[in-house]
Amino acid sequence: MALSDSLHDREALPLLDGERLLLRPVCADDAAALTDILTEPEVARWWGRNDIDSVREEMRAQPSFVIVVDGAVAGWLHVHEETDPDYPSVAFDIALTTAVHGEGYAQEALRVSIRHFIDRGHHRFTIDPAVDNERAVRCYAAVGFKPVGVLRAYERAPDGRWRDGLLMDLLADEFNG
After folding, report:
1. Rounded to an integer, what distance in angstroms lies between the CA atom of residue 35 and that of residue 37?
2. What pLDDT, in 10s, does the model give residues 74-118?
3. Which of 2, 12, 74, 158 is the most exposed, having the fewest neighbouring CB atoms within 10 Å of its CB?
4. Dihedral sign, CA of 6, 89, 138, 110?
5. Which residues have a Cβ under 8 Å from the Cβ of 39 and sit 6 or more positions away?
6. What CATH number is given for 16-126 in this structure?
């Protein structure tokens, strides 16, 4: 199956404007830029080993946004939208190029996306950084995510060892974005 210029056969994600960024659905032309970001040492530390083929596979596997800053691809926001009316929720995963770390773009991308999914009727959002990814945990807490619990031996780190994940969630009525 080839990755087409459109996202997936599922309902396409919309374009979402923030104050300083644009979220747009990922397309085939984004694979090289996203691979470059995911292979930056500070990003790869948390995202593991990636190459163009694994990025293309991930692009096919789930809907996602590209985070565009000043006209350039600056990051990737994965979205897993649960549409069952009894469990409406959205899980996120996010990566940004190190050139914009610490500038609030991750918080802005999450806030813009959360507002969109609240408007679609979702009431709960989750994200699951590595427990020891303190920068990410602080970022998500600033958006309003709260720690729920530790997912023990949750993911394999690039060095092959298992590391714990921190499950964090945010309820729509707690969101102040």
Report:
1. 5
2. 999 999 999 898 999 999 999 999 999 999 999 999 999 999 999
3. 2
4. positive
5. 50, 51
6. 3.40.630.30
